[in-house]
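Contributing new records

If you add data, match the layout below exactly. Sequence lines come first and carry their own label; structure lines follow with theirs. Keep one chain per record. Anything else will be rejected by the validation script.
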Amino acid sequence: MGKTYERIDGRLRTFIEEQPLFFTATAPLAADGTVNLSPKGLKGSFVVLDERTVAYLDFAGSNAETIAHLRENGRITLMWCAFQGPPNIVRVHGRGEAVFRDDPRFPELLGHFPGIDPAQHGLRAVVVVHAEHIRDTCGYAVPLMTYGEDRDLHGKRFSREDDASLDAYFTKKEYVATSLDGLPGLPLPLPPSSF
């Protein structure tokens, strides 16, 4: 039923790139730490950079658990489910890194997402994941659901923000600069945008 892959290419790459939704899972090293699972969407916010490297845009939100866990230990799993068509689940287990707005690599990475206006969504970072283990499973129990369209609420909410107001928003949030478990989260003050 399941298969392990050496690289993200061909049918596997096509499947991943066509999904409108994926999930990220991270955890701190502490045995009693909080495991985090987050849904990610928005067409054009995920790319396959090469056969073993993927990236996605990390937008404004009310916490930064994924960033905190990546800063502490780098472990991350990404998962896609087929809600339409043949059943399938794909997982990429790997090491991730949040590349922040003041990192010299940021502009080049941002160039891989031409269909996204980063100013509209309060872009905080580009998360880059290097795959260590790539596998799929049957997905027989995943329900069939119809994708309608992306919601426009996130863009409407954060397009009103400039760098200063976005930084103020993050500073007010309890779990942005520091995670639920007290780990360093999003570095504040937020570096100015160059986009």
